Amino acid sequence: MCHLVYGGTMYEFEDRLLAHLQVVVERKLMKMECFFLTWHPQCFADNEMSVWISPHSPIAFHFSGSREPKISKAWVVALNAISHTSRGLMAISEEDAVKYLRENPGVR
């Protein structure tokens, strides 16, 4: 497991999911964009957690292990597209990302 550290609090994520979120977050912050990041914490699957991310947010990504997760272009494309909706960046699974791209063929 790995962690998103935001405002001094550590949030646990699955390694590949956080690696993909990191790619999208980095791109958005380089463009000075502000957005919500929303996910369902693993320990509270029925609950939703959201944090406001801005270029001034204290945020860090902490990965354990020696292997970098393989990045899926399709997953990054879907997460990026979702990040531009009114809900902001939603942490979704790779399977849901593929489904999103099938349902939204114009997204690339």
What does this structure look like?
By secondary structure, this protein is an alpha+beta fold. It has helices spanning 15-30, 73-83, 94-103, and strands at 2-6, 9-13, 35-39, 49-53, 59-62, 89-90. Helix 1 (15-30) crosses helix 2 and helix 2 packs across helix 3 (94-103). 34% of the residues lie in helices and 24% in strands. The protein is built from three helices and six strands. A hairpin with a 2-residue loop joins strand 1 (2-6) and strand 2. The protein has a three-stranded antiparallel β-sheet with strand order 2-1-5. A three-stranded mixed β-sheet has the order 4-3-6.
Give a quick set of tags describing it:
108 residues; alpha+beta; 3-stranded antiparallel β-sheet; 3-stranded mixed β-sheet; 34% helix; globular
Structural class designation: alpha+beta
Low-confidence stretches: none
Report the span from N to C terminus: 29 Å
Taken as a percent bin, the fraction of beta residues is: 15-25%
Could you say which overall geometry the principal axes of the C-alpha atoms support?
globular
SS element count, helices: 3
Number of strands: 6
Secondary-structure element order, N to C: EEHEEEHEH
Helix content: 25-40%
Rg, Å, rounded: 13 Å
Overall average residue pLDDT: 92
Identify the strand order in the major beta sheet: 2-1-5
Largest sheet: 3 strands, antiparallel
